[in-house]
Structure prediction request, 80 residues.
Amino acid sequence: MSAFQDPAYTMAAMSATVALFRGLVKKGVLTRDEAVRVILDEAVARAIQAEADDQRAGGRSANDLNRQTAEILKFIAEKL
Prediction:
C-alpha cells in the first residue's frame, strides 16, 4: 500500500464503524451511552497496552499502532 492508501483505508473503516454504531443506536439495539462506553473502553484498553509495551521497550510499531488505535476510537466515540 502507498502512503496515500493507508489513511484512506483507515478513514473508510472509521466511517463504516460510525455508520454501524449510529444504525444500532437508531434501531434501539444500543443506547448512545452504551455505544460510547464500549468504544471508550476499547480505547482505554489500547492505551494501557501501549503503555505496557512502552515499559517493556519492545514492539515499538505495536506500541505506536495501539496509540493510534486509541486515538481513532476516541474520535469515533466523539462523533456518535
Notes: The two ends are 29 Å apart (CA to CA). The longest helix spans residues 32-56.
